[in-house]
UniProtKB/TrEMBL annotation:
It holds the Pfam family Glyco_transf_15. One of its GO terms (biological process) is cell wall mannoprotein biosynthetic process. This is Glycosyltransferase family 15 protein. Coiled coil: none annotated.
Length: 390
């Protein structure tokens, strides 16, 4: 009996010594058997394709430096049904890679959202391979259907070209360009109908040559989803009057004919200083957008876009997708559903939003806090904020 016990102890001692020797000499053995890893297997751990950073988020543009707040893991393991959307020409490649690399470095390396590129011409092999090389996320390249892009036949070209000549005369930016008008109309009323975007609910629009100044360690798509937001912006400003002379009258006609489509909790106060009589020309700068595609796909905005399109103002004037989206969001969503992404430092020439104070520190932003458009005379942020003060 005593001899058997002695053998048992001896065998145990050999096993324990072996375990320690392997733990020190073999990393994968150590990883597989360490107490914390074994615990994770039982208690549950973060899936490998999920953001490694803590991904809880601040609400409504406010920010807390309290680490316990950001450690509550409320968004851990979740992703929204979302994609980046980049409309681009092959010639935009240098600016596209600049934007995309920043997006990857500041945010998407951790979150792995897919990209959708759209173009009215096929993307070149060079474009596709350079762009795909920047990310581990899925990248898709879509061709825009002809009828979604080009000037429709029913537009009176004589009238349209006279309007363009007039704008060139008056030095209106992009006033002489048909492709620019195609782009504005496409962004206003078609991009969200593209086959490649059909599976998605949320999008983040990214343009060439933009800058992202700060690290983003939470998922803005989940902010949209969890807080029932439908439109997010970083910069807002006034539109050039010369590009939209009849837009507001057209909007008013639409509202008068379809009052039931306008949200009772709308953001008209952002658009108008006199209860809707005149347009103050405020709009969200649409080169940055995080939005809910269903806002555009819904009945109200679909009817609204069709009505605007029928008036021909995308070609007889130069209606931009920024005022059209902004008016649509402000009228058909509730004002609480429009979100200011205060902690996303962003620049599209010539304006930038640079987070201030604690937000600047938290995002390790590299923009100069003094260079911030928020309360410049040409910004509309104060009108947005005024809607929530009473
Ligand atoms: N495929 C395609 N994309 C275009 C065309 N024109 C513009 N875009 C894209 O549409 C978006 C807006 O165009 P931009 O030229 O940046 O317009 P903008 O921001 O008003 O003007 P900039 O100050 O020049 O940036 C960008 O993502 C462009 O790459 C076009 O003719 N074809
Ligand atoms: Mg641009």
């Amino acid at each position: 009996m005593m001899t058997q016990m002695r053998y048992l102890f001896l065998a145990l001692a050999v096993l324990i010594s072996l375990h320690y020797i392997l733990s020190f000499t073999n990393e994968s053995y150590n990883n597989a058997t360490s107490f914390s890893n074994l615990k994770d297997q039982f208690v549950g751990n973060t899936p490998p394709d999920h953001p490694a950073a803590d991904s809880s988020y601040p609400s409504s543009g406010t920010l807390s430096l309290d680490k316990s707040h950001t450690k509550n893991n409320s968004t851990a393991g979740r992703k929204a049904n979302a994609a980046f959307v980049m409309l681009a020409r092959n010639g935009d490649l240098p600016g596209i890679v600049t934007s995309m690399k920043q997006m990857e470095d500041r945010f998407n390396k951790k979150f792995n959202y897919p990209y959708v590129f759209l173009n009215e011409e096929p993307f070149s092999e060079e474009f596709k391979s350079r762009v795909s090389g920047l990310t581990d996320s899925p990248v898709q390249f879509g061709l825009i259907p002809h009828d979604h892009w080009f000037q429709p036949d029913w537009i009176d070209e004589t009238r349209a070209s006279a309007a363009r000549a007039d704008m060139v005369q008056n030095s209106v930016i992009y006033g002489g360009s048909v492709p620019y008008r195609n782009m504005c109309r496409y962004n206003s009323g078609f991009f969200y109908r593209h086959e490649l975007l059909k599976p998605f609910k949320y999008y983040w629009r990214v343009e060439p040559n933009i800058q992202y100044f700060c690290d983003l360690d939470y998922d803005p798509f989940l902010v949209m989803q969890d807080q029932n937001k439908v439109y997010g912006f970083t910069v807002s400003l006034f539109e050039y009057e010369a590009t939209i002379p009849t837009l507001w009258n057209t909007v008013k006609q639409f509202i008068n004919s379809n009052p039931e489509l306008v949200s009772p909790e709308n953001a008209m106060a952002f658009l108008s200083d006199d209860g809707g009589e005149t347009y103050n020309r405020c709009h969200f700068w649409s080169n940055f957008e995080i939005g809910d595609l269903d806002l555009w796909r819904g009945e109200a905005y679909s009817k609204f876009f069709d009505y605007l399109d029928e008036q021909g103002g995308f070609y007889y004037e130069r209606w931009g997708d920024a005022p059209v989206h902004s008016i649509g969001a402000a009228l058909f969503a509730e004002k609480d559903q429009i979100h200011f992404f205060n902690d996303i430092g962003y620049r599209h020439e010539p304006f930038q939003h640079c987070p201030q104070g604690a937000a600047h520190a938290k995002g390790k932003c590299w923009c100069d806090e003094k260079q911030n458009f928020d309360y410049e005379w040409y910004s509309c942020l104060n009108k947005y904020e005024a809607m929530f003060k009473s």
